[in-house]
Amino acid sequence: MSQNTPATLAPALTGERADLLETLAKHRDFLRFTANGLTDEQAGLRTTASELCIGGLIKHVTSVERNWVSFIVDGPSAMGDFDKMTEADFARRADEFRMLPGDTLAAVLENYAGVARRTDELVASLLDLDASHPLPSAPWFAPGKEWSARRALLHVIAETSQHAGHADIIRESLDGAKTMG
Questions:
Q1: Distance between alpha carbon 104 and the CA centroid of its chain, in Å?
Q2: Are 13 and 122 in contact (CB under 8 A)?
Q3: Which residue from 79, 96, 115, 142 has the fewest beta carbons nearer than 10 Å?
């Protein structure tokens, strides 16, 4: 029997997991679409009053998704402690929003695709979307709160969607291209 016969393919996801992954994929596509046809230089351009650029937004969303997937698997230790961040840590975080010398759009998109595959595999194989962990210490989280895997995934979807909108505005300001309309 061939490896590609229906007997050896994983069953298609259905229900909530399929809905989560379909929604996330749609917003990932919107974000990636904003980078279509851009050069590395264009991907790093700021076209609004904001510090944001398309390549930097994709780098940031990649980091956010990677960190929250690590949180789902390993708990708050995967996220680090905000209160213990150094100036160097804050600088690295700020660099997520920029195309740095040596960054290429192709590499940024490839990294994003790898993180997306890991997320999709986790959602498909996770035993329980209700499994939860305490949130890490940070000023934007209420002390003692926990998030389930589901809630973390919803946060990734929200971040991806929000930043796809930012990228769309940046792209429209760059050359008039839009993801919709």
A1: 18
A2: no
A3: 142
Residue 128, by phi and psi: left (phi above 0), alpha (psi -120 to 50) or beta? beta
- 80-131 pLDDT, tens digit each: 788 888 899 888 888 989 999 999 999 999 999 999 999 999 999 999 999 9
| Cα angle 136-61-83, degrees, rounded to a multiple of 5 | 25
Question: Considering the entire predicted model, what is its pTM?
Answer: 0.89
User: Is residue 13 exposed (0-12), middle (13-18) or buried (19+ Cβ within 10 Å)?
Assistant: middle
In this structure, are residues 97 and 159 in contact, taking their beta carbons and an 8 Å threshold?
no
Q: Which residue has the tokens 């510090």?
A: 51
Nearest to 71 by CA among 128, 162, 153: 153
Question: Structure tokens of 15?
Answer: 């229900």
- Cα distances (angstroms) measured from residue 101 to each of 32, 50, 89, 95, 108: 21, 20, 19, 11, 13
Question: Which candidate, 79, 82, 76, places its Cα nearest to that of 66?
Answer: 79
Are 147 and 155 contacting, i.e. CB atoms less than 8 angstroms apart?
yes
Tokens 């996220």 belong to residue? 79
